[in-house]
Amino acid sequence: MQEMLLKPHSRIQVIEGAKHNLPDREALRAARAICELAEGLTADDLLLVLISGGGSALLPAPKPPVLLEEKEKVTKLLASRGATIQELNTIRKALSLLKGGGLAQAAYPAQVLSLILSDVIGDPVDFIASGPTVASSHSTQDCFEILAKYNLLSSLPKSVETVLHSSSSDSVRSKDYSHVYNVIIGSNSLALEEAKHQAEALGYLTLILSAAVCGEVNRVAKLYGLLIQFVCLSMAGPGVDSLIDKRFRGVGHSSGYTGFPVKVNASNMIRRHRTPPASGLQFCL
Question: The pTM is what?
């Protein structure tokens, strides 16, 4: 592992911030350093941007005169009233210098290449990390509608009102993004397809149930357990083994839930041989 650590006097600068996925002073310092670097580029430069989930907290650069604490107050109020991640990021982009395409604009006229790991269902690039290199698809009017929806128009800091009103005459949509290339190099869909490919190479029948599952993890896990039971019963054919209680132990979730109880055929993973036996299909979920 030592060879992976930065050497003394490295040209690479690392600023660690946003502990617990919350913007903080170190993340703000990093955002300012990134902005300064981008603004110093020329047409002969190439800016390589690596983007993944958590970028919204890692690039907290509120538009003046908005303070970081004021921006966080607005987003926390929205979250407490049930705003979706899409609604939260719409507001964040409107109040940020770097989100919603701001980083790409700061780097102009340099070429910008963004390699993106998506953590958002459907891979909308303007929502992944709040889209620092993607033009925002929302207007200031959208922001006011979201704030009105959650009865927050009268609770806004004065600085936030000032920025939103001034942004209405400076739409990001009209800006040039021809110097920007956004490429999704990893996503849920890509991971599922590769897992399917690898499983089939090992001789398993596979089925991707969905690449867009969302909801409370306990309920979704129970649904998947029922689906596994149904598939086992419907595909095993004659001679099915006695059903037994099993507990699958899966990868961890953010909620800490790591498994779900289901009743399945005695073999958790049934491998399909090159010549399937007469007793029925063998498969892998």
Answer: 0.75
